[in-house]
Amino acid sequence: MSLKSVPSTKEIRYDRQLRLWGDDGQDRLERAHVCLLNASALGTEVLKSLVLPGVGAFTIYDGENVHGRDVGNNFFLSHDSIGKPRAQVACELLKELNPEVKGNFVVESPNHLLDNNISALDSFSVVIGTNLIERTARQISEYLWPRKIPFIHARCYGLIGYVRICVEEHTVVDLHPDNPTPDLRMDKPFPALAEIVKMTDLNAMTYQEHSHTPYLLILLKGLEKWRTKKGDPTALPSSYQERKEFKELLFSMRKPDDKGAVDEENFKEAADALVRTMHRTGVPSSVKQLIADAKCTNLTADSTDFWLLVSALAEYVDEADALPLAGVLPDMTSDSARYSKLSSAFHEQAAADAKRVYDLVQKRLTSLKLPASRISLKDAANFCKNAANLRLVRGTPLSDELAGTASAIQGELESYDATWSGPSMEAPVPVIAPAVWYVLLRAADRFATEKSRYPGTNGVPCHLDNHDLTLRVRALFDDWHAPHFVEKIRDEAVDEICRYGAGEPHPIAALLGGIVAQETIKLITHQYLPVDNTFVYD
């Protein structure tokens, strides 16, 4: 066994996740430093799902000591830790999960941090606040927003969960689409591919060679015949009827075996791949929007690597009238020699395209007097490989949401039928829209701000708090100039919020912790599309 074939300790430990976000994503994760505000059950579950995959470091800010109620729902606090700082105990146990991760803690409440040392948040990759009251979350968001540090406001409230992502601008360099369209350049093969097609003579092949010809070559040879028949050297079968005719042409090109049977798997693959592969090479609308963005056309020394690369990509598109070749060849029935030759041709062309983009971005670095080492050829190659799936996400600040009229929530409530439904009248099932839970969580925050406790706590009967919480729901709708929506908030839903008593059942905290960690990893790695603004779990 060669040394190259022996997996490293890191590859063994992180094998599964490397298949999800690759070496580049793992490198970004290991360079990240995440801040957690409040080591609640939800908070420790978030960190658990970040420590296990190898986040570089984490720091916990929490001013509470461990109480008996914490031990009941937080697996990272033990009975013998009661009375000790919650941040310290949680940090020590979380570090045991992965010795490669650095863990830190500060015995300081988020409110004290806000008042005395908020600049400490400047050094973090992502800040996560769990079960913060509305006022505190708003102040943290307002501080982090102009500094372009992502903030995730998350809470577990009984059987309800809430996650809000606050980020001014987030760029996605690898979307990982579920059904990616292969970049095969069927309409205009690059020179090396065109030469392979030219040297392919299906009629001169044995049955063994014929039945192991990659479907890409079959499609391109079939396209030559179809264009000759149509009298149009640029035509592609696009309509249903044209694709039907093209499939008939493909099947007419099959070769019988020595028993006269005509059943070649590679031709079936070619017919099945027709819709996915036979399309004109172009620039997706989402990428065109990036190219036209002011941050692409007006570069400065403060521009991020993403925008520097997009600017170089824009010049490349002007030159080539296409995106750089992705260089990824799908699996297909083939002998190893021809598949290897095709794969090498794609890789070499993709490398040449990436080198051109790299040269263009280096020109921009020079003109802006930035170091040439800032963007490597590997960075450019990874960017070009995923150029068709680049995305830009621009969020909204939490302060705008909390001070506004919640038009999106009102739109959800407008179409919500506040009725009960179920399999029978004896066993009704509550149907409560996520927008209702959102409103009630906002009202519960008002309740807590004004009474210094949440509904259903401190031994107060739920029916009394139900009345007070309903008053705050009405006040919230009055602020939104939409008092008629009060009828959408049923008493049964208000009762549920009071019954929860702001509790954190561990199963709900664990589920939400996984979701928040997943969104954090998306923000750190710049891979996959994050949640759109707000997520409510019921």
From TrEMBL:
Q: Which pathway does the protein contribute to?
A: Protein modification; protein neddylation
Q: Where is the THIF-type NAD/FAD binding fold domain?
A: 14-528
Q: Where are the transmembrane segments?
A: none
Name the keywords, alphabetized: Ubl conjugation pathway
Q: Pfam families under this entry? A: ThiF (PF00899)
Q: Which domain of life is it from?
A: Eukaryota
Q: Which InterPro entries match?
A: APP-BP1, ThiF/MoeB/HesA, ThiF_NAD_FAD-bd, Ubiquitin-activating_enz
Kindly state a single biological-process term from the GO annotations of this entry.
protein neddylation
One term of GO molecular function: NEDD8 activating enzyme activity
SUPFAM superfamilies per the record? Answer: Activating enzymes of the ubiquitin-like proteins
* GO terms under cellular component: cytoplasm
**What family is it from?**
Belongs to the ubiquitin-activating E1 family. ULA1 subfamily.
Its recorded name reads NEDD8-activating enzyme E1 regulatory subunit
Q: What is the lineage of its organism?
A: Eukaryota, Metazoa, Ecdysozoa, Nematoda, Chromadorea
